[in-house]
């Protein structure tokens, strides 16, 4: 498996995975959000299987505002995380989450965090499995501060 940055703000693999993650959004809305994500310098990676097809996606951004108890400086939030049901999901998910955590450390961010809006029970279980802790009302999760060892 490889983690690749999108080719550009219209990358077809990124687009296809966004459609799978957020099927209720229109194609034009996805394309607009991809353009904004690229312009804002969000961290976006597409996981590809050894055979080359896309199997996972992560989108993350830096936020200055304190939300849900994750208020120790600039926080990296997972904006979107998707892994195809056709693969070993936890392995791919861990790789995507670890890549964001490494980016957060390199950017000098205090900690990565999630804020769950959908299926909170399932999301909370995944967050705990990945080492995150609930911080507020069961909808926010943060991971312990990352020590920058670079």
Strand content: 25-35%
Extended strand count: 7
Distance between the termini: 25 Å
Q: Which series of helices and strands comes N to C?
A: EHHEEEHEHEE
Strand order of the largest sheet: 1-2-3-4-5-7-6
Note the main attributes of this structure:
150 residues, alpha+beta, Aminopeptidase, seven-stranded mixed β-sheet, 4 helices, disordered C terminus
Write the SSE topology.
Elements: E1 2-4, H1 12-21, H2 27-40, E2 43-48, E3 54-63, E4 75-83, H3 89-106, E5 111-115, H4 120-129, E6 132-136, E7 140-143
Compose a concise summary of this entry.
With 150 residues, the protein is an alpha+beta fold. It has helices spanning 12-21, 27-40, 89-106, 120-129; strands at residues 2-4, 43-48, 54-63, 75-83, 111-115, 132-136, 140-143.
Can you walk through the features of this model?
- The chain is an alpha+beta fold and 150 residues long.
- The chain contains 4 helices and 7 strands.
- The chain has one domain: Aminopeptidase.
- The protein is 35% helix and 28% strand.
- It has a 7-stranded mixed β-sheet with strand order 1-2-3-4-5-7-6, with helices on both faces.
- Helix 1 crosses helix 2.
- It is globular, with a radius of gyration of 15 Å.
- The relative contact order is 0.15.
- The C terminus is likely disordered.
């Amino acid at each position: 498996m490889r983690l690749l940055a999108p080719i550009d703000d219209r990358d077809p693999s990124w687009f296809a995975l966004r459609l799978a993650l957020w099927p209720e959004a229109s194609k034009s809305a996805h394309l607009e959000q991809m353009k904004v994500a690229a312009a804002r310098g969000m961290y976006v990676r597409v996981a590809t299987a050894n055979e080359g097809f896309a199997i996972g996606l992560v989108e993350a951004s830096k936020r200055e505002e304190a939300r849900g108890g994750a208020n120790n400086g600039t926080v990296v939030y997972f904006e979107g995380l998707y892994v195809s049901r056709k693969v070993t999901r936890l392995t791919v998910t861990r790789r995507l989450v670890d890549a964001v955590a490494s980016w957060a450390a390199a950017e000098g961010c205090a900690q990565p965090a999630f804020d769950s809006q959908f299926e909170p029970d399932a999301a909370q279980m995944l967050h705990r499995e990945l080492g995150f802790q609930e911080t507020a009302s069961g909808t926010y999760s943060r991971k312990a501060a990352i020590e920058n060892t670079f």
